[in-house]
Structures are given as C-alpha cells and as structure tokens.
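S., here's the first fold you wanted:
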Amino acid sequence: MLTVEQVVASNKANLDNFFGLSHQAFAGVEKLVELNLSAARASLNESTAHAKAVLGVKDAQEFIALQTSFVQPLVEKTVSYSRHVYDITTGTTAELSKAAEAKAAEVQAAVLGYVDSALKNAPAGSESAVAFFKQAVSASNTAVESIQKAAKQAADLAESNLNAVTETAVKATKTTAKKR
C-alpha cells in the first residue's frame, strides 16, 4: 500500500525529472538558435560581398567564374550547416532518450517491487494468476528493450545514410566546379 510520503516523493521526483528534461530540450533549442543566427550573419556578409563583386564584373567569363566560386563554398556550407543541425538534434534526442530510459527503468523497478509485494500477499490458490502476471510483465519488459534496440539501429542507419549523401553531394559539387 502506498503511503502519502511515497506519493509526495514520487511526485517530487517526477517534477524534478520534468524540469531536467525541459532544461535539456531548451539547451538544444538554444544551440539551434545560435547556429541559425551565426549562419544568417555569415550568409548576409557573404551575399553582400558577392553582390559587390558581381557589380564589378567586366565580362561574361568573369561572371561565370565568380558564380562558380560562389556556388562551391555555398554547397559545402549548406552541408556543414545541415550536419550541425543533425548533430545538435541527435545529441539532444540522445540525452532525452537516455534520461527517459533511466526513468523508465526506475519506474519499472518500482512497479516490480509493488507487484512482488502484492503477489506475496496473494491469496492461496492464485499461483497460476501470479505466474501469468509475472510472465506478462517480463514480456512487456522484453518488448520495451526490443523497441529501444530497434530505435537505436534506425538512428545509426539514418546517420550512416546522411553521411553518405553528404559526401556524395560535396564530391558532385567539386566535380562540377572543376569541369567549368
């Protein structure tokens, strides 16, 4: 049976956990805002410099060379920006997932403790029901572990694919720039 102190302690722990997760989420958002401000500032400066250079162009060859020299770094910067966004979001997600998994394990242990306590006081003749309940809890734990493993594998695959696409895009841009 739960006591008032246990309920209060549980609520306090849940509130502390919520605020901890909120701080982690806001830290990730803050990193994204800083990255976006930095990228916007750099883009504005580069666009201004490029516009001034375009105004000074004297012929078509110079214009083509100027455009080519502008596009190559732009693609690389876009890829770099995307990589930073990906790193920030996956890092924040990993931190949040780790905290959620820890909390889930804590809750699971508490539930199992309550279940064991309740089952010890089960009336005689309920052994099959107790065994069935324990089996159901075990099956749900296995399912949660499988889902967590599958999610990690999916994240690893997505990162691998992102790296491959990024590398291909940069190589294609460099190849195109060399041909001009």
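And the second, which I think is the more interesting of the pair:
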Amino acid sequence: MTRRPLARRMAAIAVSTAALTALAAPAEAATTAPAAAVDYATWQQDCGRVMSEALPYIQSRAAAGAGEKQAIVLDVDNTTLETDFGFQFPQPANRPVLKVAQYAQDHGVALIFVTARPGLLHWPTSYNLEHDGYRVTDLRVRGLIDLFKDVAAYKTAQRADIERQGYTIIANIGNSASDLSGGHAERTFKLPDYDGQLS
C-alpha cells in the first residue's frame, strides 16, 4: 500500500478541520448573514488594540502572583488562530494574541484552550497551536454530549472545572460573548467578531 505524501495528508487534515469547525459553530451564527466582508488588516489592528490593553494587565498580574497557580483561558477560532483568514493547515496564529500568550507562558502562566470544536479535532488543533508557538497546558474540546449543549454554558463549566484544579484564571480571551460570559475569570478581553461575521 502506498503512503500519500505528507503535503497531501496535511491538506486533507486542513479541509477536514475547516469543515468540522464550521459544523461546530454555534447555530445562531449560521442564521445571521454577514453585513460585509471583514478586512484582515482592520481585524489585526482591532485585535492589537484589545491585546495592548491585555498585556500590561497580564504583566502586572503575573508579577504579583508568586505562589499562585495562574492560567489564561483562550478561545481558538479567530482568537488564537486566524480561522477565517488562514486557509491552510496549520492555520497561522493571530499575532497580537500570540504575543501576549508568549509573554504569559514565559512568566509561568498556564495557557488553557477552551474551544467549541468537537473532540475529533483535538489532535490537529493541539498540533496547530504548538506549531504556531503556543505552549498548550490543556486543550478542552467538546465531547459528543457537549455538542448538544449551549456553547456558553459548556465554556463556563470548563472554566469552573479549571478553577477546581487549583488554577486562578487571571484572564479569559475570546471573540464571542459565549467565550466570555458566565464568570470564572478575573478579567475578560473580547476580540472583535463584527456582529457574528467571525465565528
């Protein structure tokens, strides 16, 4: 049996990842037609603006957290990865978020990713994040039963569980209200989703 070249296998993973990510998006996003295409440069500028507020806070909080088990919780699609702009696999990192995450991880803060992606995408997602420079302490994906639950409730429950493991969640970063609602984080930082145009 001949083995497909690595490039073809990675391309197949990219297509599968994109298709399953689209299926995993909250149902309400599918019913809202985007008003206009989002410009990449504007998105990056807007993400940079939010992360320029997050960085000094995380610098200060990490410095004051001696003896604390600190974590940042991050969403994946259009937060840590350029899902709607990176049409290849691995998808590129969202550079403003990566810069903040790398500061945090270099100063002892755990990076825990909580995504609405289904469990089938655990390995390619983890690989993609690590490839781009994120140190993945933990990656939470939805199991079969979770796929039928409200995304916000699922993500809130994951953060509560992270706290039960002894972490203080100093920041929660995402681009959707469902990423950030429900508490269990000292601060939240919302990236743009342009009224649901970005998943």
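Why I say that: Residues 40-63 form the longest helix (24 residues). The beta strands are 70-74, 110-118, 138-142, 168-174, 188-190.

Talk tomorrow,
H.
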